[in-house]
Amino acid sequence: MSFPVVITGMGAVTVFGDGCTALFEALRKGESGLHELRGIAVARGKNRSAQIEDPRRTGPWRLSDMAVDAAREALAQAGGPAPGVTGLYVGTTGGDNRALEDRWEDFLAARRALAAGADPQVDDELAEAMVRFPIGVLADVLAHRLGIEGPRYAVTNACASGTTATAMALLALRQGTVDRAVVVGADHLKATSYWGAERAGFVGHDLRPFHADRDGSVLGDGAGALVLERAADTAARGGTPLAGLAGWAITCDDNPHAIIPPEDGASNAEAVRLALADAGISPEEVDYFNAHGTGTPLIDRLETASARLVFGDRAGQVAISSTKSIVGHLAAASPIIEAIATVYCLTEQWVHPTAKLDRIDPALTLDYVPLRGRPQRIRAAVSNSLGGGGTNAVLAFRPQDCAQAAPDPLEPAPDAFEPVADVVVTGTGAVSRLGDGPDALEAAYGPNAAPGRTRPYSVLDHIDAAAGYQYLSRSAQLGFGAAAQAMADAGLPVPLPAEGPLAGRRVAVVMGTAVGGLSAMAETLCPHLSADPTRITPSMSLDHGPQLAATLVCRAAGVTGPMVTLISGPAAGLQAVEVGRALLAAGACDIVIAGGGDAGDAPTRDAARLLASRQGR
Predict the structure, then answer these.
(1) Pick the catalytic residue: 159, 345, 402, 526?
(2) Is 205 annotated as catalytic?
(3) What contacts 24+ positions apart, CB below 8 Å, involve 346-349?
(4) Nearest one of 243, 159, 223, 184 to 12, comparing CA atoms
(5) Which residue from 146, 242, 299, 496 has the fewest beta carbons nearer than 10 Å?
(6) Per-residue pLDDT averaged across 307-323, rounded?
(7) What is d(CA 553, CA 14) in angstroms, rounded to the nearest whole number?
(8) β-bridge partners, 48
(9) Residues 190, 41 contacting (CB under 8 angstroms)
(10) Close Cβ partners of 490 (under 8 Å, ≥ 6 residues apart)
(11) Backbone angles phi and psi of 163, in degrees to 5
């Protein structure tokens, strides 16, 4: 059985200042908060940013501080006492790892000293930067500072991470795993992300979604937070719901790419349809579409096509606007800020505008609410997010007075997810220094194990050529190799068929990793940033995304169902299995390919040795 879920608290830190009030005032004005990029070398004249320049927002742990402040605002609005178990769901693409990237030269010097047997000279800040480099540590820091003792998850599905985290929280509340969920999306601009995105053609000279002269996106800093509860629990404690979080969906692009989505919008439209079906909302009820709205030519065309596929002849009657046009592109924080903007529009029965849209691309013919907001009857709304690696993630909302009007869970709407009870394991796979497959693990750790028995990693280099990735991280290769073995063990065909009981659209991929390829990416990019950043190529950044193991599996297997990547530390692989079980139990899929992958690369190993030597061990 599932339960209607409501939003009871919201918090935000953006370029306009701390708090949702500052954000709402900016949405009302409809003016962009972009300003001059500072502190990072500018590439090809692209000197705009949405950086937060508040003097209080300085120091190596500024992102943690922003995330904590956003969460505290949301919790204060939600009020208390909090019922039962509170879970924490964090979406981020970089966490606090900028702190180590900013001191990479010091890190390299310490590594050289350690190798030479000299004193590594690791100060407290550098040591803390190494500890916090794995981005899932952000969830640990937030849990500690907020006093949240329930389950916590860190999600990294690129720019859709915040929506993915929210969907996981919604599932957990419906299934009774937690009684309250705090969802946080947080990211800040750093040199590696700016230059990696710029080299890939993603960064523009300004951020003008749907504009005839748009040429890319503009990155910035931000944090957003939501508090979610079951509607009945909120009513029982006398709380006030702000809006109903009525539905969710995640799909993967057909043949997903590291960054480029398909222009036809079909996979995105499927996500919107599924989210509406999950919410019991018909497309005819949707009056507002909060777009991903990055200002890149392709994505604007994609979302326009998606809206036409979903809403048909009435697509021109659905108000569409881009929150990013006002606050900038905030990576994993954007989906949460956009959800907050959507709730504000629902509450006010008003639609915020798309800033700077003084000349709409003549090829885009829908209602993008240019320049000025307007009153609008909103019966239901959707917020759309896209993430590199092929993710489409959508949330559906109702006004707070309709929060409990969701369909009876015993009588699901047509095409809604059908709950199931029994979950079984049908295939396993493993790739390690012990060899390929579970048998190698048994030989090493079973009752007849030979002491010291090890073998080199499997040869997975063919993946590079097949995927077209020059710098594909070892962790992605290993995760893919294990998943391929598990599929073969389960007797699943590759690729999966488009229809029937093994249809790829009814298969989910959930992968876990502690670091992914992020340390290898920093080791590749940081020397160029200090020497000559113009030598950076797109693949140096894009090929190291921690979500790429899932992308490879989806591409090889023909999977277009839900795709989630967890980066919650050493437990991430086990969490992937648990999240997969939750997806099956919710009826969101029929099959889950769940696993994990990590590689002990040189930066990770050296950081562990430096920290151990500093502690005298």
Answers:
(1) 159
(2) no
(3) 346/243, 346/288, 346/378, 346/381, 346/397, 346/398, 346/399, 346/400, 347/242, 347/243, 347/399, 347/400, 349/375, 349/376, 349/377, 349/378
(4) 223
(5) 146
(6) 98
(7) 35
(8) 36
(9) no
(10) 426, 427
(11) -70, -40
Q: 267 and 250 in contact (C-beta within 8 Å)?
A: no
Token couple for 249: 């969906």
Biggest alpha carbon–alpha carbon distance for the chain: 73
8 Å CB contact between 138 and 92: yes
Query: Which pLDDT score is estimated for 414?
Result: 40
**What's the pLDDT score for residue 24?**
98
Strand partners, 594: 510
Count of Cβ atoms closer than 10 Å to residue 401 Cβ: 10
CB 155 within 8 A of CB 145: no
Distance CA 425, CA 478 (A): 20
Phi, psi of 11 (to 5 degrees): -145, 150
Tens of pLDDT, residue by residue over 566-613, are: 999 999 999 999 999 999 999 999 999 999 999 989 999 999 999 998
The full length of the chain comes to 617
| Token output for 111 | 């590594």
What was the pLDDT predicted at 404?
Answer: 46
- Lowest average pLDDT, out of 282-291, 424-433, 520-529, goes to 424-433
Distances (CA, A) of 273 to 159, 308, 364, 444: 20, 12, 21, 48
Beta bridge mates, 9? 227
211 is catalytic: no
Cα 366 to chain centroid, rounded: 27
Cα distance between residue 220 and residue 213, in whole Å = 21
Answer yes or no: 345 catalytic.
no
Lowest mean pLDDT among 99-108, 463-472, 498-507, 575-584: 463-472
Could you tell me the two tokens for 573? Answer: 């692989």
Q: How far apart are CA 80 and CA 239, in angstroms?
A: 8
- Single out the catalytic residue among 292, 345, 352, 544: 292
Q: φ, ψ for residue 57 (rounded to 5)?
A: -95, 60
d(CA 279, CA 407): 8
Q: Which of 211, 329, 352, 544 is catalytic?
A: 329
Could you tell me what percent of the chain has a pLDDT over 90? Answer: 82
State the pLDDT at residue 471: 78
Nearest to 50 by CA among 194, 159, 198, 189: 189
Residue 501: exposed, middle, or buried by beta-carbon count in 10 A (0-12, 13-18, 19+)? exposed
**Side chain identity, residue 590:** D
- C-alpha to C-alpha distance for 146 and 131, rounded to whole angstroms: 19
Question: Which two three-digit tokens encode residue 150?
Answer: 């329930």
- Tell me which DSSP letter residue 295 carries: S
- What confidence tens digit (pLDDT) does each residue in 133-175 have? 999 999 999 999 999 999 999 999 999 999 999 999 999 999 9
Antiparallel, parallel or unpaired: β 35-36 and 319-322: unpaired
